Amino acid sequence: MVSARTIAEAVLDPELPVLTLADLGVLRSVEEHDDRVVVTITPTYTGCPALEEMRVDLRRRLAAAGYRRVEVRTVLSPAWTTDWISEDGRRKLAEHGIAPPDRVGPRTGPVPLNLTPPPVRVRCPRCGCADTTELSRFSATACKALRRCESCREPFEHVKEF
């Protein structure tokens, strides 16, 4: 029997189906206990509309592989960050025309309050140009913005940094 971890790692994200839940960093742990499997996930944000679909997909894929008792737990702390996206996941995003997020690094101490967002330099995933313009802060999903490259003039999505 294929390990529960291997199966869970292959489940695709419903909103970014070029990535697995493991690529996205949403899959936190997979534990096998006698006759049951406990999968722990952290959504990209607490109101993520794809959370229930992730749970259903994990249960369905594990059940199809012979795991009959599957529990999917949601953990919100620590909060998910785009830093958890794997290098392979970042590569897959770029290959599919979605600009991956920059790394934000560890956060300690008080969070600064900025009333205006800092300028964002996002490279075009098609031509690599850094001269891009944000067209909309939100795209097909809340975690992506819509941008346009000023060089090749192509629109593209960008996964926002969290």
Care to describe what's here?
The chain is of the alpha/beta class. Helix 3 links the parallel strand 2 and strand 3. The longest helix has 14 residues. The model has no long low-confidence stretch (mean pLDDT 91).
Produce the secondary structure layout.
Blueprint lengths: L3 H6 L11 H4 L2 E7 L2 E6 L9 H14 L4 E6 L12 H9 L2 E2 L32 E5 L7 E6 L5 E5 L3
Parallel strand pairs: 2-3, 4-7
Antiparallel strand pairs: 1-2, 5-6, 6-7
Structural class of the secondary elements? alpha/beta
Give a short account of the largest sheet.
4 strands, mixed
What percentage of the residues does DSSP assign to strands (E)?
15-25%
Q: Please provide the ordered H/E string of secondary-structure elements.
A: HHEEHEHEEEE
Query: Total number of β-strand segments?
Result: 7
Strand order of the largest sheet: 4-7-6-5
Helix content: 10-25%
User: What is the residue-mean pLDDT, rounded to a whole number?
Assistant: 91
What is the helix tally? 4
Distance between the termini: 37 Å
Assign an overall shape.
Answer: globular
Rg over alpha carbons: 18 Å
- Low-confidence runs: none
